[in-house]
Design goal:
Layout lengths: L1 E7 L8 H4 L2 E7 L7 E11 L1 H7 L9 E2 L3 E9 L11 E4 L9 H4 L7 H9 L14 E2 L9 E5 L3 E3 L6 H4 L5 H13 L7 E4 L3 H12 L5 E5 L2 H9 L4 E4 L5 H8 L4 E6 L4 H9 L1 E9 L13 H6 L3 E4 L7 H13 L9 E5 L4 H9 L5 E5 L2
Parallel strand pairs: 4-7, 10-11, 10-13, 11-12, 13-14, 14-15, 16-17
Antiparallel strand pairs: 1-2, 1-4, 3-5, 3-8, 3-17, 5-6, 6-9
Helix pairs in contact: 6-7, 6-12
């Protein structure tokens, strides 16, 4: 079938993207779903910094690619051997397909699914095949910047039909990653201190997760004053401007010697070092950002032993998507995760390059392409 989608053919084109046009809106050929796959009409797709990292080349991927990994839609057709799904189902996508059988999946660590990682690296669906024609690759098994897509059923989670699509999409990355880092990776308990470094979609979702967990105090750190203002509205007890030379000292003072849990969500090794420096003795530094593979992180090695410090990675919020997406939606419906506050812009697919300029300038939290 013919569909419309945003194609990235070359990484590293310079900003402003409104001029260089790294994403071209094209008519694409999409083949029917195979066994265990779904044809989905995309209703909404979020713009994530991880997409921007592919565009600017700091997160290398196979080219050319139909971009986008945070999306929600409606099942139009099911392939053979696809139990549990039917046309009309509303779904949110996980950007790691979950095979359910490898060692990480069997131990409850779906974010580390081994066949899923192989497929994502190769630009294929979980079955190892591509449904895009013309030599195009899938982005993280989703390719959400297209009006119709084929995905593995292992990449899809059913969600309530009444959940607005522009909100539902956010649960596929920003919420699953940020809230998951707090409740799954760190397992923050009520009354424990938290610092969040970086207040993009993932960072603010982590802040929402900390608030929902009853953390106290909660310190929000960013370079942009307007994001600090939003963080305070969302429940941060303290805010710190990251450009100040005293930023780490301010976090340590607000948390009486350092945060029990410090979260880095920027994908920058220097920010990660700041987060580590702001973590208390016996505390845990969690990084959910994705720096360029060449970047290195250095810490005083003795502190790991003498201060019993922990550094943990959190990919996809250490989530089990079929478990966590529904429970995070339940918290949203109960008013405990005001995810709607993260949505700052909606746009048409044709406006996507300008929207990535806005994201790069820090003027947006979450922007969503609407296809309806």
């Amino acid at each position: 079938m013919k569909v419309r989608g945003a194609v990235l053919r070359e990484m590293g084109l310079p900003a402003p993207f409104a001029s260089s046009r790294p994403l071209s809106i094209e008519d694409l050929d999409l083949t029917a779903p195979g066994p265990g796959e779904l044809l989905v009409k995309v209703r909404a797709a979020g713009l994530c910094h991880s997409d921007l990292s592919v565009i600017d080349g700091s997160r290398p991927r196979v080219m050319p690619m139909v971009l986008g990994h945070e999306a929600a839609g409606e099942v139009i057709e099911t392939g053979p051997e696809t139990p549990g799904f039917a046309p009309g189902d509303r779904v949110v996508f996980s950007f790691v397909p979950v095979c359910g059988a490898c060692a990480p999946c069997a131990s409850g660590r779906s974010a580390l699914c081994e066949p899923g990682a192989v497929a994502n690296t190769a630009g294929t669906l979980l079955a190892g095949e591509r449904r895009w024609q013309g030599g195009l690759n899938h982005h993280l098994g989703v390719s959400g910047f297209a009006d119709h897509i084929v995905v593995s059923a292992r990449s899809a989670v059913k969600v309530p039909a009444e959940l607005p699509s522009e909100i539902a999409a956010l649960f596929g990355c920003a919420v699953m990653t940020g809230v998951g880092a707090v409740v799954n990776t760190a397992r923050v308990a009520a009354g424990e201190s938290v610092a969040v470094f970086g207040l993009g979609g993932v960072g603010l979702a982590a802040l929402l997760g900390a608030v929902a967990s009853g953390a106290n105090p909660i310190v929000a750190v960013d370079v942009l004053p307007h994001k600090l203002e939003l963080a305070r509205d969302l429940g941060a007890t303290h805010t710190v401007l990251a450009t100040e030379p005293t930023a780490v000292d301010e976090v340590r003072e607000a948390t009486q010697g350092g945060a029990a849990f410090a979260f880095e969500t920027v994908g920058n090794e220097k920010v990660l070092a700041q987060a580590y420096a702001a973590t208390r003795r016996g505390g845990t530094t969690v990084t959910a950002g994705l720096p360029h593979p060449d970047r290195m992180f250095s810490i005083p090695a003795v502190s790991l032993v003498a201060e019993e410090r922990t550094v943990k990675g959190s990919y996809m919020g250490s989530a089990v998507p079929a478990r966590d997406i529904p429970r995070f939606i339940a918290l949203y419906n109960a008013g405990r995760l005001p995810v709607n506050r993260l949505l700052t812009h909606t746009l048409r697919l044709e406006e996507i390059n300008e929207a990535f300029d806005r994201l790069a300038r820090g003027e947006a939290v979450r922007q969503v392409v609407l296809f309806d």
